[in-house]
Design a protein that fits this description.
- This protein is α/β, with parallel strands linked by helices.
- The chain contains six helices and five strands.
- A five-stranded parallel sheet has the order 3-2-1-4-5, with helices on both faces.
- The structure holds 4'-phosphopantetheine.
- 4'-phosphopantetheine binds next to β1 and α4.
- The site of 4'-phosphopantetheine has 9 residues, from β1 and α4.
């Protein structure tokens, strides 16, 4: 048993992410969800909004906390005295990039391992980018997101349209 960091952009958090979080919470003593503050793409939601959405949908999980972070993931892991990084793998196409990042992280922080959980098959196609694209064109996103998150995506897009 250990403390794990589950990092991501979570813009927005999907049911696929939530599935990984719930399964990680069963395996670990403690799970810290690390929400990346500044990533290269312009996010739909601010870091604080993403943190709040994650806090709300993980309120039923006693051993899960949510924080935002900037800079290197391994520094965030060290700062929280965590042991592991958790990443989800949806398909072989994810593997090459995830392996490269995990190996780079292991070179810069030899004490931190990354473990991979296979995404639940029913969410294997799902990504935050797909959700945003479907939502932007007025499609139904209810199958992809927790209900409160789907509401916030619709609200944010309608605010943006003005
Ligand atoms: O949800 P995402 O966008 O796939 O998450 C990517 C994330 C946040 C895990 C990754 O971009 C990250 O760790 N960023 C922090 C900077 C860093 O440490 N990069 C890895 C060094 S190779």
């Amino acid at each position: 048993m250990a403390t794990a960091v589950y990092p991501g952009s979570f813009d927005p958090v999907t049911l696929g992410h939530l599935d990984i979080i719930e399964r990680s919470a069963k395996m670990m003593d403690h799970v810290i969800i690390g929400v990346l503050k500044n990533y290269s793409k312009t996010p739909l939601f601010s870091a604080q909004e993403r943190v709040n959405m994650l806090k709300s949908i993980t309120a039923h999980l006693d051993n899960v906390e949510v924080q935002s972070f900037g800079g290197l993931l391994v520094d965030f892991v060290h700062m929280n005295h965590a042991d592991l990084i958790i990443r989800g793998l949806r398909a072989v196409s994810d593997f090459e990039y995830e392996l490269q990042v995990a190996q780079a992280n292991r070179v810069i922080a030899t004490d931190i391992d990354t473990i991979f959980l296979t995404t639940n098959i029913k969410y294997s196609y799902l990504s935050s980018s797909i959700v945003k694209e479907v939502a932007a064109f007025g499609g139904n996103i209810n199958e992809f997101l927790p209900p409160s998150v789907a509401d916030q995506v619709r609200k944010k897009l309608s605010e943006q349209k003005g």
